[in-house]
Amino acid sequence: MNFPWLTRRVLGWALYDVASSTYVALVPTFFGLYFVTNVSAGSSGSGYWGLAAAVSVGLTGLLAPLAGAYADRTARWIVVLAVATVLCVIGTLVLPLASAHGALAAAAAFVCAQVGYALATSLYDSYVVDVAPARYRGQVSGFGWAVGLVGGMSAVLIAIWMMRGIPAGEQIVRLGAVFVMTGLIFGVLALPGVGGVRGLRVPAAPPMRKGALVDSARGVVSTLLAWRAHGPVIQVLAAFFLINDVLVTIQFFIVIVLSARFGLTVEGMLWLALLFSAIAIPATLLAGHAADQRGGRPVLVAMCLALGAAIVLLAVGTGNWIPVAVVVLLGLVFAPIQASFRALYASLIPSNRAAEMFGFNVIAGRLSAAIGPLVFGAVAAWLGGNAVALIVLLLPLATGVMLLLTADLSDRYDRRPGDSRELAETVQRG
């Protein structure tokens, strides 16, 4: 088969996805179980964990657009990416030590790790406009997610090996060592990952040095004040923010729900995480191809319907087959939804403001996504169960789908003059 978009630039860009996926495969999901079992046990544990998750998501929303605008104005994209990566690695490494000092210290370490990860991946995502010709952005975005999942699978396999021979009741304690392993692997793989994106972006204007931070803040404020000028972008963002709220909440609570409702061990859930990644890799590649061929909107809507089915199964299903069925459905849609949105969003924004606009994506997306974990944790703690909290997630999901269906996508950058030249130049440079 012919893949004209698979260039050295794309391969270099995808390296960082491999590194960051080691973190996302284990920490946001399994640290919640570790937190509510070892750090803040009892009926209030889910509420405190929801609060910690919400703070991490909301803080990212405040910082990401400023970091993106600063990187655009100073051309210091690599510096910002490296600093955010280091923050995530350090936060991950100290999770067990911080947890030994109570819930507040554990939450602070997790917030540092999660904010670092989200800032780094926001900047990394913005590079999709530099490496991908507009007509192939769906496939390139899907390729990045799929390759990244290989890194996540590798980390999960190591975690499974670390659980071998450990009694079921002690496996949650062993998760502390798993987090340290994750931080080390992320740090090692991030070195070639950061190197892979070096040189992919050339400043459109001479970089600003003096007063860049203040000017960046002004730029973010002006973008927020001029939101009416970006009507279709805002509506697509609003749709994804609601859908992403559901995804983020599931990510933070899925392991807790599986453990509470089905009594799964940590090792059993790690095997399910491996199954998730194995399904997500081909699903993400196929979704990217389908988005380029049929458009991102119908692909996203179809995947949202499957996501809704997974939520209902998780909330009311009984039987040993339910966890496997839920994980299969999530594997089919979780990464593909995010990859397809990344490509659709890139087609709606100017490339010379990519980092800032992807940061703007994060400020609203993360602030809105902070609501999901907070509400889910509060409902679960109040009612002493997760079923009702899961059903509540169907409301933002349905609203997001309706916004996506009614958005006007006629004015897109990948349909404007110069696209053919961009494709030829990108393939030639590759």
How far is it from the N-terminal to the C-terminal residue, by CA?
Answer: 18 Å
Strand content: under 5%
**Poorly predicted runs of 5 or more residues:** 415-430
Shape: globular
Instruction: Tell me the number of helical segments per DSSP (H or I, 4 or more residues long).
Output: 18
Please give the radius of gyration in angstroms: 20 Å
CATH structural class: Mainly Alpha
H and E order? HHHHHHHHHHHHHHHHHH
**Average pLDDT rating:** 77
Total count of strands = 0
Query: Main β-sheet: number of strands, strand sense, barrel status?
Result: none
| Secondary structure: helix percent | over 70%
Q: How many domain regions?
A: 1
Structural class: mainly alpha
- CATH topology: the name is Growth Hormone, Chain: A
Q: CATH homologous superfamily, by name?
A: MFS general substrate transporter like domains
What CATH architecture would you give?
Answer: Up-down Bundle
Brief account:
With 430 residues, this protein is mostly helical. The protein has helices at 8-39, 45-74, 77-93, 95-99, 103-126, 128-131, 137-163, 171-197, 212-225, 231-262, 266-294, 296-316, 322-346, 354-369, 371-383, 387-392, 394-406, 419-429.
Annotation keywords:
430 residues, 80% helix
Task: Set out the fold topology.
Blueprint: H1 8-39, H2 45-74, H3 77-93, H4 95-99, H5 103-126, H6 128-131, H7 137-163, H8 171-197, H9 212-225, H10 231-262, H11 266-294, H12 296-316, H13 322-346, H14 354-369, H15 371-383, H16 387-392, H17 394-406, H18 419-429
Helix pairs in contact: 1-2, 1-5, 1-7, 1-8, 1-10, 2-3, 2-5, 2-9, 2-14, 2-15, 3-5, 3-8, 5-14, 7-8, 7-11, 7-13, 10-13, 10-14, 10-15, 10-17, 11-12, 11-13, 12-13, 12-17
